[in-house]
Amino acid sequence: MARRTSAKGQGNGEGSVQFGDQTVTRGEGGETHQVAGGDVPVLTTQQGIPVSDDQNSLRIGRRGPTALEDFHFREKIFHFDHERIPERVVHARGYGAHGFFETYEPLTDITRADIFQRAGEKTPAFVRFSTVAGSLGSPDLARDVRGFAVKLYTKEGNWDIVGNNIPVFFIQDAIKFPDLIHSVKEEPDRGFPQAQSAHDNFWDFISLSPEATHMALWVMSDRAIPRSFRFMEGFGVHTFRLVNAEGKSTFVKFHWKPKLGMQSVVWNEALKINGADPDFHRRDLYDAITSGDFPEWELGLQVFDEEFADKFQFDVLDATKLIPEELVPIRLVGRLVLDRMADNVFSEIEQVAFCTQNVVPGVDFSNDPLLQGRNFSYLDTQLKRLGSPNFTYLPINAPKCPFAHFQRDGHMAVAVPQGRANYEPNSWGGAAGGPREAPQQGFHSYPAEETGLKERVRSETFADHYSQARQFYVSQTPTEQGHIAAAFIFELSKVQRPEIRSRMVGHLLNVDAGLANKVADGLRLKEMPKAAVPARAVIEDLPASPALSIIGNPPDTFQGRKVGALISDGVDAALLNALKAALEKEGALLKLVAPNIGGVKASDGSWIEADEKIDGGPSVVFDAAAILLSADGAKLLANESTARDFVADAFAHCKFIAHNADAQTLLDKAGVVPDGGVVALGKAADAATFVTACRKLRFWDREATVKQV
Ligand code: HDE
Predict the structure, then answer these.
(1) Is the Cβ atom of 381 under 6 angstroms away from ligand 1?
(2) 381 CA to middle of ligand 1, Å?
(3) How far away, in angstroms, is 51 Cα from ligand 1 center?
(4) Does the C-beta of 371 come closer than 6 Å to ligand 1?
(5) What does the pLDDT average to over 315-327?
(6) Among the four 45, 471, 523, 526, which has the fewest Cβ within 10 Å?
(7) pTM of this structure
């Protein structure tokens, strides 16, 4: 039954419009009302009382004061006033999705974790990706570490692997975390810069913390500006333990390997993406998942024993160090597939509460001082953010296996526990007595033997701060090394105090003299500083670890990527269709960019709808560009700065560019010089050649000529 919603009793009468099964009517003051009908539920208050009018508050006289009695109005405003919760103090900006983890093979030899007992077992999962420094509304392409937090709802409780897309961290002891984060956030006396490490406080802290040098190299590398969440690796960072049914422990490091390979953007592109589409990463994930292109990662384990730990040159408890894959190979043990977007951003992505201490029987901690500190911090921060120790009952946080305990009451106690016993031991027996301990099945901490003096010290095994930074640098391709130098120059150029710039170069001298010189030149330092005095001599001959390079490990596919085609009236329809078909075959997408969103009239007279207007779809949001224009269209667009930028940026960012002959006028005006990355499309068959070329993702040979670095 339709319920009338107008206070004036106006129903489906004059001035009403039908939208599907909803009737929208216009009231006297021009306000609109929707009338419930069919399957549409009746609007109620939070107490379930049907609402007659949601457009007007209760008034004494038409132009008189609002009545305090209006409980619907007060409830609505009251709720609105409390809609925000404190954003995360770090990792505020994030996005997430649901999926599952599938176990490849039983790992009973190394762990009793239930999730690893049966091949083909599927475990529900939720993942949240994030940036660290920026606030909730900050742009996605800040230069920053990305969070990669995975919640696995196993049959023996929730297991959270709260990792990052970089395998090492800035600091060695959790007690330094507040200082690190204060230094990178907006400076407190001015409230800026937002979501940027390029400022004095950050580099002051880093340059006074030699342990941060390795991480600084990673953050200045392309890892910190990923193209997509889908194209980045994830790392558990710390050393953890796996424990088997016999109680035997092995050490482990966790890795997530993206099926579509790694890919990053260049810095100038990142700056422009932040303007063109600050939601670039979340949109990408949303588009991929909702179109059925489900991102996938494989879980890799680096498993090693005490013997390896003892002879490794670095302490496996030091989170500023990694173990090269070439030394301890990665065993792929399962896959993580994200196949469903969150239904509601607040309920799920904002309220999800990851806790490093959420481990399941068969997984355990190591003594990494950063991990130990995190085990306190995450539970504590959830109380601040979510406001109640009952956050574990929220649908996104609740285990999907049965759970029973004697934790009771508190704010928002949504569970309704039955029975008389709310303590144990108790002698009520049966259901009334509630749950009981399970000595065999329950979680057992690995009985590691610990002795020692109680003191505030840093182990001397943590003292080597430069050797792995150097190893990371020499493992990069020359192109990537150039990007690292350029990033240091950019960031330190935003630092106002020259002594901070010099101090940082003093650390780089311990990493690589060539890098330090490049950065010093780029900053125009008046004199080269002395190298920082290392606490332990730098090992200069650590072998390169090729696995650490992005460009050195190309995916050799264009799958999951996007081409932006700039088109005009008179575009060759056959060519466009051939390109679309070739991309579809590769699993990639074609997006059409035109002078007007309404589209263009193609050479064969057909009408082609556009996806974007030129300034709304600049080439920075695509992985490659196609310039397909009629001669007239090219002439016209050569005079449009947005069209010239589209082409010039694609060229400067080393993207592959396809074009038809008539597009040449625009290419010339945009300064495109033909090279191996510029592909002429003469005939439809050339489209496939272009897509094959795109598998290299970027034409890096061009970079020196366009002076990106
Ligand atoms: Fe976190 N970190 N962290 N962190 N972290 C938080 O917990 C903290 C560290 C990471 O999407 C907070 O729920 C301390 C390393 C991710 O919800 C907080 C230390 C790594 C996320 C916190 C670290 C991470 C967080 C803030 C130094 C990679 C986002 C909100 C010992 C291995 C999770 C929250 C999400 C979030 C504390 C260092 C990853 C305050 C004290 C190392 C991915 O608890």
Answers:
(1) yes
(2) 10
(3) 43
(4) no
(5) 98
(6) 526
(7) 0.95
Catalytic residue, from 91, 199, 255, 281: name it: 91
Q: How confident is residue 37, by pLDDT bands cut at 50, 70 and 90?
A: low
164 is catalytic: yes
How high is the pLDDT of residue 38?
A: 72
Distance CA 123, CA 400 (A): 10
688-702 confidence digits (pLDDT tens): 999 999 999 999 999
707 falls in which pLDDT band (50, 70, 90)?
confident
Measuring from atom 23 of ligand 1, which residue has the nearest CA? 374
Rounded CA-CA distance 129/255 in Å is 15
CA of 180 to the centre of ligand 1 (A): 12
Q: Which numbered atom of ligand 1 lies nearest the CA of 237?
A: 32
Kindly state the tokens that stand for 455.
Answer: 């003191």
Does 89 sit in the ligand 1 pocket, CB within 6 Å?
Answer: yes
Q: How far is CA 38 from CA 3, 127, 420, 596, in A?
A: 10, 37, 45, 40
Domain 78-393 belongs in CATH node 2.40.180.10: yes
- Report whether pLDDT(7) > 90: no
- Identify whether 411 is a catalytic site residue: no
- Give residue 111 CA to ligand 1 midpoint distance, Å: 26
Ligand 1 centroid – CA 499 distance (Å): 31
Q: Does ligand 1 have an atom closer than 6 angstroms to the CB of 133?
A: no
From the CA of 235, give the closest atom in ligand 1.
Answer: 32
Q: What is the pLDDT of residue 6?
A: 39
- What CATH number belongs to 562-706? 3.40.50.880
Q: Is 162 in the pocket of ligand 1 (CB under 6 A)?
A: yes
SS (H, E, C) 659-698: ECHHHHHHHHHCCCCCCCCEEECCCCCHHHHHHHHHCCCC
- The residue whose CA is least distant from atom 41 of ligand 1 is 374
Q: 340 phi and psi, to 5 degrees?
A: -150, 125
- Is 324 touching ligand 1 by the criterion CB < 6 Å? no
> Above 70 in pLDDT, residue 560?
yes
User: How far apart, in Å, are the Cα atoms of 362 and each of 19, 252, 404, 446?
Assistant: 56, 12, 20, 9
For domain 464-548, the CATH architecture is Up-down Bundle (1.20)
Task: Exactly one of 56, 72, 98, 164 is catalytic; name it.
Answer: 164
* Domain locations in the chain as residue ranges: 2-55, 78-393, 464-548, 562-706
Helices 478-493 and 498-508, packing angle to 10 deg: 160
Q: Would you state the pLDDT for residue 709?
A: 46
- Closest to 647 (Cα-Cα) out of 663, 630, 631: 663
* Residues linked to residue 600 through DSSP beta bridges, in sequence order: 608
Distance 286 CA to ligand 1 centre (A): 24
Mean pLDDT of 339-355: 98
Question: Which pLDDT tens digit goes with each residue over 372-422?
Answer: 999 999 999 999 999 999 999 999 999 999 999 999 999 999 999 998 999
pLDDT at 39: 84
Quote the CA–CA distance of 563 and 580 in Å, as a whole number: 9
